[in-house]
Design brief:
Shape: globular
Strand order of the largest sheet: 9-12-13-16-15-14
Structural class: mainly beta
Largest sheet: 6 strands, antiparallel, barrel
Number of strands: 16
Strand content: 35-45%
Number of domains: 2
CATH class of the largest domain: Mainly Beta
CATH topology of the largest domain: Thrombin, subunit H
Radius of gyration: 17 Å
Number of helices: 3
Order of helices and strands: HEHEEEEEEEEEEEEEEEH
Distance between the termini: 30 Å
Length: 259
C-alpha cells in the first residue's frame, strides 16, 4: 500500500492546475463515465506510468496493451474520479492479463498507432459497488463520440525525440470528438482544441445509450506533424472495438469473466 501511496503522491506532485483530457470538463461522481472508467497505475521497475481503463465485467477491465508492460504484479487499478487521497477500498490489484496478438494489419505501424494495442485485465476482487459495465459497439465505431481519461494537457516536443509532458491532472475528465476509419484503426483530429493526451492511453471513445457506455474505441496514442510543437494537438489513434469485438468476447470467456 505504501508503494501505491508514494506513486500517487508523485503523480500529484507532477500535476499542474490544468485539464487532463483537454477541451473537456471534469466528470462528476454520479455520471455514467465515472462509474465505468478507472485509472491504471503501472509501477514497472523503469518508472510509474498512468493510463486509463474501462470496466467490462465485475472483475474485467479493457485498456491498451502497452499500459500493462509492468506485468500483473506491478499494476493497480484505481476507481476514483480524483487520484488524490484515494481510499483503499477503491484500489484493486491484477491477477491476469491477456493481450491481443499481432496481426498482419499492424505491419509498419508504430507505438502510437498500433491497431493491435489492446489488453484485458482481470482484477483480484470485483470492482466497487455501483460500477456500471460498458458494452461493445455493434457498429463500426465511426462518428461523434465522447472520450475520457486521466492524462496530461500537452506533450511538447524537445530536441531530438524528447518530450515534455505538462498539465497532469488528478481528475477524470471527458470531452467530445469524431472518429473516422484510418486503415485498421480509428482516428480523431485534435487540432480543433479538444482531445486526449499522454496518460489517457487505454481510455474510451464511446457513446451513451440509456444508463450505459457503449465502446467504439480505446486510445492507443497521439501524434502530430513536425510543424506542430504539441503531439496532443495533432491526431489521436484508437483501437477499433469493432475489429476486436469477437476476440474480446472469446478471451473474456477464457479468463472466466464472460461478458
Amino acid at each position: 500500500m505504501f508503494r501505491i501511496a508514494a506513486s500517487l503522491a508523485l503523480l500529484a506532485a507532477l500535476a499542474a492546475p490544468a485539464a487532463a483530457v483537454f477541451g473537456g470538463k471534469p466528470v462528476g461522481a454520479g455520471e455514467i463515465v465515472a462509474k465505468s472508467v478507472a485509472a491504471v497505475l503501472d509501477q514497472a521497475p523503469g518508472g510509474t506510468h498512468l493510463c486509463t481503463a474501462v470496466a467490462l465485467g465485475p472483475r474485467l477491465m479493457l485498456t491498451a496493451a502497452h499500459c500493462t508492460d509492468g506485468g500483473a504484479s506491478a499494476i493497480r487499478v484505481i476507481f476514483a474520479t480524483s487520484l488524490t487521497d484515494v481510499p483503499a477500498e477503491r484500489l484493486r490489484s491484477v491477477t491476469a492479463i491477456a493481450r491481443a496478438g499481432r496481426t498482419p494489419e499492424a505491419k509498419g505501424s508504430f507505438a502510437y498507432n498500433n491497431p493491435d494495442d489492446l489488453a484485458l485485465i482481470v482484477l483480484d476482487a470485483p470492482a466497487p459497488a455501483g460500477t456500471v459495465l460498458a458494452t461493445l459497439t455493434d457498429g463500426d465505431g465511426t462518428g461523434a463520440v465522447h472520450i475520457a481519461g486521466y492524462g496530461a494537457t500537452s506533450d511538447l516536443r524537445q530536441a531530438g525525440f524528447g518530450k515534455s509532458q505538462l498539465g497532469f491532472d488528478r481528475t477524470l475528465r471527458a470531452a467530445t470528438t469524431t472518429l473516422v476509419e484510418k486503415g485498421p484503426a480509428l482516428l480523431a483530429d485534435q487540432s480543433g482544441g479538444a482531445g486526449m493526451c499522454t496518460g489517457d492511453s487505454g481510455g474510451p471513445a464511446f457513446t451513451l445509450r440509456g444508463k450505459s457506455m457503449t465502446l467504439a474505441g480505446i486510445l492507443i496514442g497521439v501524434s502530430s506533424p513536425r510543424a506542430v510543437n504539441d503531439y496532443c494537438r495533432g491526431s489521436a489513434h484508437f483501437v477499433s472495438i469493432a475489429r476486436w469485438r469477437a476476440w474480446i468476447a472469446a478471451t473474456a470467456e477464457k479468463l472466466g469473466q464472460p461478458l
